[in-house]
Write the structure tokens for this entry.
Amino acid sequence: MGTPGLTGAGTGTRGATATRTGRHALHTDLHIGGHATATDARFPVCDPATGTVIAEVADGTADDAVRAVAAAHEAGTRWAATSPRRRSELLLAAFGLLQDRAEELAALITRESGKALSDARAEVRYAAEFFRWYAEEAVRAAGSLVPAPAGGHRILVQHRPVGVCALVTPWNFPAAMATRKLAPALAAGCTAVLKPASDAPLTALCVAALLERAGVPPGVVNVVPSRRPGEVVGALLRDPRVRKLSFTGSTEVGRLLLREAAEGVLNVSMELGGNAPFLVFADADLDAAVAGAVLAKTRNAGQACTAANRFYVQAPVAGEFGRRLATRMAALTVGPGHAEGTDIGPLINAAAVAKADRLVASAVASGARALTGGARPSGPGCFYPPTVLADVPPGAPILAEEIFAPVAPIVPFDREEEAVRHANATDMGLVSYVYTGDLARALRLTGLLEAGMVGVNRGLVSEPAAPFGGVKQSGIGREGGHDGLLDYLETQYTAVDW
Ligand code: NAD
């Protein structure tokens, strides 16, 4: 495609602003009812590698949010009545378009989020798979009919679309977090208003355009970027036509939105923060554990909710694991995401660099040793070097926060019980990683670790066909797999006497 933006999308453009960024001519407006609608107020989106402004995006307001809800509501009845087979075909067409345009979408993701092109390409593949998976799921919304135990009547159970959904996404996976919500919502027969993160709103606009180019009717997917998220999301949640909130982001904001959603007793799905422990036992294949650690730590420069945040390594192999991990991490190329060969792009903004710096400095002050990295480089761009910290004391603050940077703190442990205690000593419960050669131990640990997902001898759990989500303060509900569809369906029971 000539542009990965909104050009040619929907039924027309009203006051559209085209911003040329390299090869891309992007529409950067609100996307409501199939129209790209310009606003007077706009906000800048910056390339984190250089700080350069790459686009000025429409700054949506509460009124815009209400107009988007109206469009989604109006489109809702017809979309819900569209046959599952047709919805499936449209999602499959969107899967094809995303694949055809993968390279351009990856370039856009890299420009606005900073991530390495290799990460952006992987994200596009992952994002596209949600369209394929839910194209397949759209035609499998099963119900049931059973006799009541006492006889006399029957119990008919059917599933109906929840209705208009407010979808709120973070900047770290701007394509995949959008498709992970849009694909099941559309498969279920729901319509949506998507509020992407203001750091990276362009990809979401592009995804909405691709869906419409695939044939999804105007109004089914609406996008309202804004740098006033509280105002826009608040308006969405107060609108009685909105029946669901699906949020991906920090636990802090999630908690706030849960309170707001309580007012209208909304159906909620919350994909929140993580603080993943990565357990390595002395009986593990150390090469595999190091490879898994590099993947779990450095994907997206460590800016993933599933990022390994705390490494607990059994004492006999802790030194060797740390040395090998440091060697592998030190060999990674840090640079602008768009440069071929870059493994680690910049962090999203200066505040993220300052946070990594603060956490590393406090760990070192409490006795940890930097085996590689450990200090932010001078010069432009929001870069932070791959860092491995050995001998981190179990109570160090760096273990209590989501680091969101390529920093790996290692804590040695002696016994399995101790590792489990450390792993569970957090309010979060998204994912845990376990490396061991003992399958019985691995399975025992899946029952002991407080996590919605466990990677056994694997550093990557994200998979469109699997139910992704957390326990404790990491979230409510699941995205992906068959469970992901259920999150957009209401169960209706009918007592039938015939
Ligand atoms: P964030 O919570 O700051 O923002 C997420 C979204 O909420 C954005 O669209 C933002 O504009 C919006 N928002 C912010 N403040 C708001 C408010 N007061 N009212 C309404 N909306 C508001 O998170 P982030 O920095 O964009 O993303 C990083 C966080 O997301 C990390 O904690 C990470 O673990 C989490 N995350 C979780 C998953 C998961 O699947 N569990 C996936 C990716 C990211």
